[in-house]
Amino acid sequence: MTDHVDVLIVGAGLSGVGAAHHLQSAFPERTYTILEARDAIGGTWDLFRYPGVRSDSDMHTLGYRFRPWTQAKAIADGPSILRYVRDTAAEAGIDAHIRFGHRVVRAEWSTVDAQWTVEATHDGETVRLTAKFLYLCSGYYRYDAGHTPEFPGIDRFGGTLVHPQHWPAELDHTGKKVVVIGSGATAVTLVPAMAETAAHVTMLQRSPTYIMALPAEDALANRLRSLLGARFAYPVARWKNVLSQTLLYQLSRRRPRLVRALIRRANTRLLPPGYDVDTHFKPRYQPWDQRLCLVPDGDLFRAIRRGNASVVTDRIATFTESGLRLESGEELDADIVVSATGLKLLAFGGIRLVVDGHEVDPPETMAYKGMMLSGVPNFAFTIGYTNASWTLKADLVGEYVVRLLRHLDARGYDQCVPVNDDPSVTARPLLDFDAGYVLRSVDEFPRAGSRAPWQLGMSYAHDVLNLRYGKIDDGALRFSRRPVREVLAR
């Protein structure tokens, strides 16, 4: 593979494979390479190996727009999603464009050359590539470390402590007493999965999370596929689910008391009679202030009804030799403790960005349409929705990058850069979300603006109009050619 390409993609996960598919479908003759820090395709879905790992979105929206999801289960397990991503890459020949074990550490833009010089480490050596356009699909959290709080007394604990992001392949929880610390998507996935063979699993939470049961199979989508075939059924199922998600989100924001009551009523029906729902399943915040957790076929509630699992709402006073002592004085015995305590965010995979010799400080930049940076030319990144499936936004970013490159080609431009010269646009957090993992690191990310095009939209329907069909040359995006004197000098 050449060391100069038209487009350099960073990351071979769900977003990176999708970006490559959009690019090569639109420009078969254009060159591209994907640099992947790990040794396999799949990103998140290759990294996470904990029991029961699955999507927290339906696959008709988490799947690619261009490749129908054809399995019966809409809430899919991790291995099935990983196969889907890898099959997508293999069928399109994308895997031949990937350089594995290449961790990008620095990227410098030169206006004189109208190109990026990208440095990556590979087998302890520095590898350099140049590209006309840099497209980051590396997600927004650290792959090498999850968030684990400072647990008092942890040195005394005689059992096993594990973080879901680094699950030991040899860990056997059969017949063991397990405590899962946390109440987010990872915790509610782990508890019923481990409860199948563990002696007992306790989900220990400081405060409850909104949890909704959803059928693992989308009956309407499956019926439409049997009648119409995957090609015609998939977009219908996709839009049906997009509209359902949007309706729930909007209703949650406008009528939070109603949604709280509906969720509580549904949970009460699924839990044992007399269960203390308000202690363990009544959050202090409003619906969708944080991401709502989905449990397929109510598996968490079924595990609680069977007695295989339980929920304790309390705080940790200290670890002991045999488990944990809580602030209430209750003791929890544990052979294994799982710290499902969240992620660590990392802006742009920790890559140092430099423009014409000046290092870019992400918090000093503003995100254009949630996918480019002010003052950074020929650059795009993918951050998905927090209130819907990640891939919905990733697909739209891929489509927009294609449109942008066509615009450059048609008008003979070499570069484009977002410029915010409107003093009335005020800065806001890029991720306006109250989840702990966001609040811990949001100040290290670019800012959003108070109005378009500097906002990170959370409406797929709005973004379809804006990114798929909206005007490219909108005044905030500036286009230029390389200086004539530099071209002639060469």
From TrEMBL:
Residues annotated as signal peptide: none
Cofactor(s) annotated in UniProt: FAD
Record Gene3D superfamilies: FAD/NAD(P)-binding domain
Keywords: FAD, Flavoprotein, Monooxygenase, Oxidoreductase
GO molecular function terms attached to this record: monooxygenase activity
E.C. numbers: 1.14.13.-
Keyword Transmembrane attributed: no
Pfam families in UniProt: FMO-like (PF00743), NAD_binding_8 (PF13450)
Family designation: Belongs to the FAD-binding monooxygenase family.
Protein name: Flavin-containing monooxygenase
Organism: Amycolatopsis samaneae
